[in-house]
Amino acid sequence: MEALERTVATLKAKAKVMRAAARQADARMTELETEVTRLEGDLAKAGRAAPAKAPRAAAARPSKQSRELDPGDAVPPGVAVQEPAPLDAEAEAARASLEENLSGE
């Protein structure tokens, strides 16, 4: 019986510690949510004020890379296939069939 009473007392003590930790975690979450809300407000204010003061840094950067570069230019010679392998009979028949059926469209 005494062992059960000690176990109950231990469990009660652990439950008390866990409730305190849960309260602290809840308080921290509330604090972080408040901070996020404040930062979002600051960001929104800065976003509205930035165009009036100066152009944004993103607008000053050049846009996407020039389209003049071929994506294959990044592949070193000898790695990429220079000439495709010749078509076998089945592939040639499929190609002929496609050309025949699609030429009317």
Structure summary:
With 105 residues, the chain is mainly alpha-helical. It contains three helices and no strands.
Q: Main beta sheet, described?
A: none
Compute the separation of the termini in Å: 91 Å
- Which overall shape is indicated by the principal axes computed on the Cα atoms? elongated
**SSE run:** HHH
- The helix content, as a percent range, equals 55-70%
Task: Quickly give the structural class.
Answer: mainly alpha
Fraction in beta strands:
under 5%
Mean of residue pLDDT values? 78
Total count of strands: 0
Radius of gyration: 35 Å
Number of helices: 3
Low-confidence segments, given as residue ranges, are: 50-62
Plain-language structure description:
With 105 residues, the chain is an all-alpha fold. It has a domain at 15-46. It contains three helices and no strands. The protein has helices at residues 2-53, 57-60, 89-102. The longest helix has 52 residues, at 2-53. The radius of gyration is 35 Å and the shape is elongated.
Brief descriptors of the model:
105 residues, single chain, mainly alpha, elongated, 67% helix
Write the layout of secondary structure elements.
Elements: H1 2-53, H2 57-60, H3 89-102
